[in-house]
Amino acid sequence: METEERSCEKVFSNGDVYLGNLMVMLPHGKGIYTWSDGTVYDGDWEDGKMSGKGRIFWPSRTTYEGDFSGGYLHGFGTFTGSDGSIYRGSWNMNSQHGIGRKQYHNSDIYDGCWREGVREGSGRYAWSDGNLYIGNWRKGKMSGRGVMRWSNGDLFDGFWLNGLRHGPGFYTFTDGSYYFGTWTKGLKDGRGTFYPVGSKHLSKRLEGQEDKKTKLLSHSSSINSEDSIVPSVKRSLSDKISNSFQRGSGRISRKSIFLDADWGCNDSTRKITSSLSLSLRDGQGESEDNRAVAYEREYMQGVLIKERIRNTSKLSHKNKQSLKFAKEVQRSSCVNFFEGHRSYYLMLSLQLGIRYTVGKITPVPMREVRSSDFGEQARIRMYFPRKGSQLTPPHNSVDFFWKDYCPMVFRNLREMFKLNAADYMMSICGDDGLRELSSPGKSGSLFYLSHDDKFVIKTLKKSELKVLLKMLPHYYEHVQEHENTLITKFFGDAQDSIKTWKKDLRIHRRYDLKGSSQGRFTNKDEINESSTLKDLDLTYEFHMDRSLRESLFKQLSLDSLFLESQGIIDYSLLLGLHFRAPEHLKPLLEPPDSLHTPESVISSGELLIPPRGLVLVTHEPSSVSTLPGPHIRGNTLKAFAIGNKEADLLLPGTGRLRVQLGVNMPAQANRRIMQDETSSNEVELFEVYDVVLYLGIIDILQEYNLKKKIEHKYKSLQFDPLSISAVEPTVYSKRFISFLEKVFPLDP
Fold it and tell me: Are residues 435 and 330 in contact, defined by beta-carbon separation less than 8 angstroms?
């Protein structure tokens, strides 16, 4: 028996009125619904829900015309706000979702991707005053790779976070001068190079204007106003309709239908970001490589600490590469490989293999490891043909065999390190891909960095793999017994290296320390923001809280004894330093018209730069982050300064961090100013900074080789008893600790 549609008018007890077609007392077909507050919908209905084409008018003069589904704004439509703003684009469940264009009430315009009512993905934002940004967005803010051009012609091409410059970037001034460096939360932070054009004073004046632009940008009313982005509709509209019918007839169900959630920007939209970014450079002259003078600068939270003038005609290969990068910054949010390149296929193979192995071992019930879980024979071996097989998916790499050693052992290690399997795979095997890093050593290994900077994958030589498998049972026991170990964390074929430190603070300098002198220095002309310096480059001593230092050296001794027992040499302490800008130099930020180096603030006092800004406070678990990460395992350290209680590190203006062994450890860095650096012969001066330390033991796969020791001894005319090939494991570990005791001296 067919159900007939009929047209009628229905008045509800709450004052709502419906005029249109009904089917079994439900709106179906064409109809007009008027709420008691004056809101009107005119359009299609299906089983009591607004579905199809329609228009809705609110008393506030807000309107929407477009697609509806299941009672929601869903599909494509135009929303006009009461303030005059207009959004035209895709919708999903009452939220802008997909590709759309919004013109704000102040005439700003955004074209691009949306997710759940906020800007997310690739997009173009044009301010009414002529400023323009093209790039990536996250949660409504400029985040990721993007290019900003100001109305006066200045341009920034680099990385952003929450609407502020954050990460490496390239700033071009209107006069043609440019600065290549790193930013943190909108402030220059770390090393960079300024290439002036014209007079030095003009260049510095322009650079000051550049800092002010970030502040003006951050106060833009449209770009940071979430209220103006998300319409007031949300889900209340469908609830309102359902409630009215339910109260009126008792027959309208509030059950919502399942809708396709696959709404968003397609790949073609993301691919145009780079070409759009490059178009912003049109009309600007190419950067010149042959400028006579450049200024190498070092900043701490926006304060210029040091400056060195250099002749750019003698630029090193690395700096020339930096200039090349500055002209054409590659997107790090996407795959930085080109098809046909060997490392591209290797990267794809690594992702496929890791995804397969982790997916295969994770469902297996947890159990204690057995002796049979170790060794070269404990492995998963699988063939991955390009076309796929019954057990493997088709892929874009070449045909390859995958071997994963000791899967159960590494599965337990991941659990031990409190690493969720899903998070692990998302970091390494996600769509954002891996980034290839240049090898920091001479091994020739390839290094890949996960897109979220949590993990480093290193290719191993056969000799290194052999050492790893041989020491793995003892490594497992050591890690199980010492949760604060500083030794490199292994999660499988992927090696977690503390090289990048997924951290709360920016690492300004990195040191690879072995306690050796032979060849342990870096050419000054080769140093840049990403350089890892060596023993002879370290000119600071680090003074720590007594209890923190005691905990550090207790674990260093335990770890070095373990490596000694395994016959391992040539390992290093990787030391990362985050410098805090001295408080009395902070006024240089406002205004940055006069930039000084430390030499310009030398006084007759004992300290060149008195530090302030790091405070140890009693640990409060609710006040610090407990999100899973590389350092979630390990206890909170106790500090002598607060009565040997568990400590948090309080950084005024930055946040509160949990102090762990090798993570967020505060110290005071002292460097003696040499006599030729000052004009004073009467006062011994020191350069003193507050620093936050990050530490870890790396390069633990080199076994002691007596043959190499003998060969080195007779081939080297300048024999160094601390040379890596000449020291037995016992001697190496003792001298390693002895050297670090000088780097971290015990205060009297």
Answer: no
With residues binned 3-state (H G I as helix, E B as strand, rest as coil), the percentages for the chain, rounded to 5, are: 25, 30, 40
Structure tokens at 545: 């809280």
Q: Shortest CA distance to 535 belongs to which of 743, 716, 298, 318?
A: 743
* Beta strand pairing call for 26-34 and 686-698: unpaired
Backbone φ and ψ for 383, nearest 5 degrees, come out as -100, 130
Measured over all CA atoms, what is the biggest interatomic distance in the chain, rounded to whole angstroms?
108
Distance, CA of 672 to CA of 684 (rounded, Å): 8
Tell me, yes or no, if the pTM score tops 0.90. Answer: no
Which is it for the CA torsion 325, 327, 333, 338, positive or negative? negative
First to last CA, the chain: 97
Strands 95-103 and 86-92: antiparallel
User: Under the phi-then-psi rule, with left for phi > 0, alpha for psi from -120 to 50, and beta for the rest, what region is 661?
Assistant: beta
As a whole number of angstroms, the distance between CA 16 and CA 38 comes to 9
Average confidence score pLDDT of the chain:
76
* Phi, psi torsion values for 158, nearest 5 degrees: 175, -145
Tokens 């699988």 map to which residue?
Answer: 382
Phi–psi pair at 214, nearest 5 degrees: -60, -40
Q: How far apart are CA 459 and CA 462, in angstroms?
A: 10
Measured distance CA(261)–CA(501) in Å, rounded: 35
Q: State how far the Cα of 446 lies from the Cα of 203, in Å rounded to an integer.
A: 40
Distance CA 21, CA 7 (A): 4
498: CB partners within 8 A, 6+ apart: 488, 574, 576, 630, 662, 694, 695, 696, 698
Gap between the Cα atoms of 702 and 602, Å rounded:
46
CA distance 685 to 747: 19
- Whether residue 98 contacts residue 264, with contact meaning beta carbons closer than 8 Å, is answered with yes
Tell me the per-residue pLDDT of 486-534, one tens digit each, with 9 for 90 and over: 998 888 754 444 344 446 788 888 999 998 888 788 887 777 777 888 8
Considering only CA atoms, give the Rg of the chain: 31
CB atoms within 10 A of CB 346: 20
* In contact, 221 and 106? CB cutoff 8 Å: yes
